[in-house]
Amino acid sequence: xxxxxxxxxxxxxxxxxxxxxxxxxxxxxxxxxxxxxxxxxxxxxxxxxxxxxxxxxxxxxxxxxxxxxxxxxxxxxxxxxxxxxxxxxxxxxxxxxxxxxxxxxxxxxxxxxxxxxxxxxxxxxxxxxxxxxxxxxxxxxxxxxxxxxxxxxxxxxxxxxxxxxxxxxxxxxxxxxxxxxxxxxxxxxxxxxxxxxxxxxxxxxxxxxxxxxxxxxxxxxxxxxxxxxxxxxxxxxxxxxxxxxxxxxxxxxxxxxxxxxxxxxxxxxxxxxxxxxxxxxxxxxxxxxxxxxxxxxxxxxxxxxxxxxxxxxxxxxxxxxxxxxxxxxxxxxxxxxxxxxxxxxxxxxxxxxxxxxxxxxxxxxxxxxxxxxxxxxxxxxxxxxxxxxxxxxxxxxxxxxxxxxxxxxxxxxxxxxxxxxxxxxxxxxxxxxxxxxxxxxxxxxxxxxxxx
Length: 452
Description:
five-stranded mixed β-barrel, disordered N terminus, five-stranded parallel sheet, 14 strands
């Protein structure tokens, strides 16, 4: 389509430059002191080697979101790489690899074909070691704050611990060494093991071991402990075990956990929180054998103590039985004589006690008739006096005593007359005096008043 139709400016530029020239200008702009021989900190990504040279991406991540904020192509030329790599491994115990943080010195370079890159000439291994240790301390401090740091360390061991759940890479040399050491133990201890396969290196190691722990937990009653082992491998692979989620799972696992994933100088977070830390898979097997042998020794000592105690008891019983056998012919006779002697003594004591108690009782009994006569006479006299007093009082209060004083008792129809109102002319009345009774007929009734 013609340019005029599109409305574009069809005039020819006054001047132009090539891409090469533009790159040259960019390179000259970057070749300033602020971009040359500067120290930077970054995380390594897409780390690889080719032809003796080392290529990578240097990235910065947002601490909150984990999203990459900036990236820069990095290069270590072969002339420097072997020297820097050897020094880094000697100092940190791990090689340069993806995922670690570094402090590197270099110059910004702009290449016409490859673009901008950072050519590394030096590296500070102390920074990386410090970052690894800082991350490890942060994980341990978080576990401590959550109160789970020492949980697995305090899990009690079964006695003895012979059923072992093994978390290892299937077919790994370390697993083979562990099994060979365990089952060829010199004490013929019978162990039972179960392999729970897991990846023990790389980015998937932590999630893989967590999955294996969950599988063990699903059949918890079948095992006495868990062993996590790996044999050989790069020291850099141990970074995978400085993982909070994996550490939290091991710390809270209900069975004691043995960790043997590194060497003596290699330490991970798991080494701080597991119940037992050993150097190698073989060392893990040796520890389990020694632990079981120790328990077996305890059982042997207990059995020996029991046997000695039983023998002592039997020996004492035999001695006592022999003594009783010697005493058997004379013991019944001696016992009968002792009982006779005790019976005679008891009889004499009974006679003496009876005589001593009966003499005073007999004396009191002899005095009782006279005392009873006096007591009865006194009682009868008191009762007679009371009777006389009652008789005199009764006589004084009797109607006859009243009649002797001149009073009479008049009755009509057998009822005492207390008022003229109860009489009528012609009534027959009976009048009693102290020496007789008179009968008469009422001729007239005179009311003297004052009666109510």
